[in-house]
């Protein structure tokens, strides 16, 4: 564990979807990034709520943090993103400059596939421009002296990024923590599914190998937790713990064995409850479809498309 971290991490767990959102902040500058914020959505009523995102906004306010970036690890299929609401949340009195919403450059592939499924071709901005910033593997964002490095970790989707945090100051350049997105889950839960369009279990295995090549004490923050009965929700593990105990990819599991396991398991999984509402919003950076002349908004329900 770090003795004198130059940055802080606060997790927000959404019990409804099992999603973990994070606020990462640079201690000296009070600049912050929010990772994977949840916009609450009740599919039965079609009602949205910003209750989960408000908790994050309240934390930013209480800690006097300036929101600098909203980071998406990928286009989520299990919850709607609160990126558009949250990016405009500023502490009282602050200059109102909305924080850029960031995702991996390969989001354009995901938009192409799902844009076709939903018939959204005319609604999606060209070249990923629904997002404010597209990152390639190795690109770096600044958060004061802290650096956030994008690691391409395809597999769950082609566009998945992990965000590796590099400390400023004396430890400059050292990777201390990684937000791993949908790659690894907690060791007793395993790994992310790879059966959505564009998913690839071979790619996920290699992406996980890249994450687990970091030093053993590196902290890994997962995007979801689905705790087994009797265990409280958790979201932080280490490279060493994952190597030793991850039920799907502990040391000694080779690519062929992992892929066989992953594909067999994926064949048994139901679609996520909010997949159809979520993806059409999240591939446009958390925007609902445009309103009609009466101000009404409608989500689409593609039939027999998946
Ligand atoms: Fe996901």
UniProtKB/TrEMBL annotation:
The keyword Metal-binding applies. This is MBL fold metallo-hydrolase. PANTHER family: PERSULFIDE DIOXYGENASE ETHE1, PERSULFIDE DIOXYGENASE ETHE1, MITOCHONDRIAL. Residues 18-224 form the Metallo-beta-lactamase domain. Coiled coil: none annotated. It comes from the Bacteria. Keywords: Metal-binding. The lineage of its organism: Bacteria, Pseudomonadati, Pseudomonadota, Betaproteobacteria, Burkholderiales. InterPro entries: Metallo-B-lactamas, Mito_Persulfide_Diox, POD-like_MBL-fold, RibonucZ/Hydroxyglut_hydro. It holds the Pfam family Lactamase_B.
């Amino acid at each position: 564990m770090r003795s004198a971290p130059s940055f802080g991490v606060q997790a927000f767990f959404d019990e409804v979807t099992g999603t973990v959102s994070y606020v990462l902040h640079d201690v000296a500058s009070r600049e912050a990034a929010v990772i994977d914020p949840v916009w609450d959505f009740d599919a039965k009523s079609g009602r949205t709520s910003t209750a989960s995102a408000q908790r994050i906004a309240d934390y930013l306010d209480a800690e006097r943090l300036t929101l600098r970036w909203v980071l998406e690890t990928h286009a989520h299929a299990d919850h709607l993103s609160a990126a558009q609401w949250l990016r405009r949340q500023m502490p009282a009195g602050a200059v109102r400059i909305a924080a850029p919403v960031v995702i991996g450059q390969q989001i354009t592939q995901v938009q192409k596939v799902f844009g076709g499924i939903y018939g959204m071709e005319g609604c999606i901005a060209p070249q990923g421009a629904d997002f404010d910033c597209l990152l390639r593997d190795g690109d770096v964002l600044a958060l004061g002296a802290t650096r956030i490095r994008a690691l391409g970790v395809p597999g769950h989707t082609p566009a998945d990024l992990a965000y590796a945090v590099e400390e400023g100051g004396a430890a400059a350049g050292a990777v201390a923590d990684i937000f791993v997105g949908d790659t690894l889950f907690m060791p007793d839960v395993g790994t992310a599914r790879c059966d959505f369009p564009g998913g690839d279990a071979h790619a996920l295995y290699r992406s996980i190998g890249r994450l687990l090549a970091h030093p053993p004490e590196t902290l890994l923050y997962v995007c979801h937790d689905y705790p087994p009965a009797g265990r409280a929700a958790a979201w932080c593990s280490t490279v060493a713990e994952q190597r030793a105990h991850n039920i799907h990819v502990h040391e000694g599991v080779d690519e062929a064995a992992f892929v066989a396991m992953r594909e067999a398991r994926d064949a048994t999984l139901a679609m996520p409850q909010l997949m159809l509402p979520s993806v059409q919003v999240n591939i446009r950076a958390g925007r609902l479809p445009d309103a009609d002349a009466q101000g009404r908004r409608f989500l689409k329900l593609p039939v027999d498309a998946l």
